[in-house]
Amino acid sequence: MALTPNKNDPSPTYVETVEEIMKSYKSLPPRPSIEEVEAAMSVVKTVNYEEQERLEEISKEVAPQDVPPELFSVLQEVRKSKVLFRSHEQMKEAVHLVELDKIFQTFDELIQRASELVSAKTSPEKELNLGGPDGEIGIEVVISDDESVRRNEEPKIEDSKGMSLNASSEPPSIPSAAKYEESKQLSLMRVAAIIESSAKAEAEFLDLQGKLMDKIEWLPLSLGKLSHIIELNIADNNLMVLPSTIGSLKSLRKLDVHSNQLFNLPDSFGELLGLTDLDLHANRLRSLPASFKNLKDLISLDLSSNRFAHLPDAIGNLTSLKKLSVQLNELEELPYTIGSCLLLVELRLDFNQLKALPLSISKLQYLEILTLHYNRIKVLPTMGNLLHLKELDVSFNELESIPESLCHAVSLKKLNVGKNFSDLRALPKSIGNLELLEELDISDNQIFVLPDSFRFLANLKVFHADQTPLELPPTEIAKLGAEAVVNFMAEFVTTRDMRPQRPVKQRGFCLQFFVNCFRVETA
After folding, report:
1. Region entry Disordered: which residue ranges (predicted)?
2. pTM of model > 0.85
């Protein structure tokens, strides 16, 4: 209600006092929004939590034998001071905003007190005429009976023209969430504000790839508020840990955290039961939490470029998995339980220290791609059941032989057994069963003779035998390409089978004669 003029109009001094109070309130800078204050409080809470965790870790460190305890104690204090300094830097913006909001709350209380005093002084209509003798209204103070000066309902001031002005009419000093997304480098405070605004908007997608400042090593605990998020991309940053609250993202289907500095995952990670796509490549992970076995809806998992020496047996619980990449790690073996991932279509294990594959690999009947480039494998397991296998790369290993059972994988189109050097001396005799084979690489091996069945590889388009001392067919024929080699082997076998057996000592002459004839025909 407004205050109406009456016989008991307040004195000019009284009016001036009210005016000064209201003008002082109007002169304040823009007030932070509820969303921004919540973001700031989240940052403070997160930084304090991470600070405490780090300080406890430092306190538990044990001095090396050759370092005196007193000196190591000094080192610990230095490390703790560094943590405290970093926390101070990360909280500075958030603490300022929280303190600013407290000041505004103080002003709110003062304005409320003034409102009550003015209400008691004036008539029941609560209208105060601050105009001149002619009765024109100069300034109206509109005071509601409810607590309008609280955060959600700022006090309203009207000028002589009746224009309503809110105390926080200007946007807050911190940019909006939309502007955050345009920025290339975001502070922890800004990230927290984005999370708050995304949570309130029930956003389903959030992309922070490469947008965080380098000094940001963790995300706010408020990340757990993103209950509607389906896809979250926080790749290409410098994150060292994920908040435990990440387990609250029940709607999350796709998570990309590649190219960070993660050295572990929180136990709550296993609560992301709806997760289908997970990219963790290019981090510093050595292990997975025990709860990881709960991610039974996971379809694609990329663990490449980490520091895994082994995978947990629980990997076999990921029964929906279709694509698994563990390239560029330190794996020495695969768990036998890998055979339980029956839907696996693509398995990439390049650049590890594998010496063998588990026999259970033969259970992966839907497997189409298996790459083992640059390992230490000597023998391949039985692969006759891999009827859908289309690509096999076992190059740069210590392979001594290729099992005949591989030739039952009749869908194979690309086979690379190159660069096994002195270890590999022959191809399986029934390689001709692989009638769909289009690419074959046997470079840098010790193979001298191709098997007779090679002539049945009618679809072969690419054949590499560089630095392999072939005698049958001769190297010069191999250089002519896949078609020439297949044709040579076909004609050689046909001609040989039509002729009577010759003494061994004449074999070299006959072969040379046949090669010369083949050259003429090819020319």
Report:
1. 147-176
2. no
